[in-house]
Design brief:
alpha+beta, Alpha-Beta Plaits
């Protein structure tokens, strides 16, 4: 017999350090499995989860959006409070709203914003799991120039995990910026666009910081790699712990 499913939109924050990414894994340890396990424990009922972004192992989120579908009907605020109570401290449901069953977190996305944090001085132990410590001197002007190369619509085949891409590798980077937060001694690279391929943001950041820390590589080298379009280049991928899924905006 067909069961009526009740649908909720959840905005989620998590520290990804100890998780094997968002998506369910055969060996366990994913954010998805932690959410499902807590739901079953608290409500003695299963829940189906679909996330806007399948973040990788070690990647954090402040604004992950998840569709939750359950047989049982709940008051959204009561569901949020009870579910949070059953979750580990590394996961927090920031908001929960009842939505139409047509809602899908990967449809009608206007923009996704990722932030990448890095340190130029060895960080305090409290911050080390949320950013990349760059031991080489970073030329900040050169870094911004390298990041600017990625703005606009390009074929980003050279900056993705190609075997995981179905279809076109053309994407648009709407904006990319660099900020410094003196209080925490951390730099933030903020990248916004309608959508990104797996590992794309980390590879963009890794490439920009690579040339910004080496005098022998000009900014033009990044542009040449972008135009050549080969994913088998030697530019590095930035470590996972610096990446944060910051915000997802929807249209319509």
């Amino acid at each position: 017999m067909f069961e009526l499913m009740h649908t909720y939109k959840v905005v989620l924050a998590y520290d990804g350090t100890d998780f094997a990414g968002w998506q369910r894994q055969p060996t366990g340890g994913s954010v998805e499995q932690a959410l499902q396990g807590a739901f079953v424990t608290k409500f003695n009922s299963d829940v189906q989860l679909t996330a806007a972004s399948r973040t990788d192992a070690g990647v954090h989120a402040l604004g992950q959006v998840v569709r939750c579908q359950a047989v049982a009907s709940f008051d959204a605020q009561a569901l949020q409070r009870a579910w949070n109570h059953a979750l580990p401290g590394s996961i927090l449901i920031r908001s929960c709203t009842s939505v139409s069953e047509e809602f899908h977190p990967r449809c009608n996305v206007r923009s996704k914003t990722y932030c990448y944090h890095f340190f130029t001085k060895q960080p305090l132990p409290f911050f080390v799991r949320y950013g990349w410590y760059c031991e080489r001197r970073v030329d900040l002007d050169k870094l911004q120039q390298a990041l600017n190369v990625f703005e606009g619509t390009h074929d980003f085949r050279a900056f993705c995990k190609e075997r995981d891409v179905c279809g076109s590798t053309i994407r648009t980077v709407s904006s990319v910026g660099l900020e410094y937060f003196r209080r925490f001694g951390v730099y933030r690279i903020q990248v916004t666009g309608p959508g990104f391929m797996r590992h794309m943001v980390r590879r963009l950041v890794g490439a920009a910081l690579f040339v910004a820390t080496r005098q022998e590589f000009p900014v033009e080298y990044v542009r040449e790699v972008l135009i050549a379009g080969s994913s088998n280049n030697t530019l590095p991928k930035a470590p996972a712990q610096g990446l944060l899924l910051y915000k997802i905006r929807y249209g319509g």
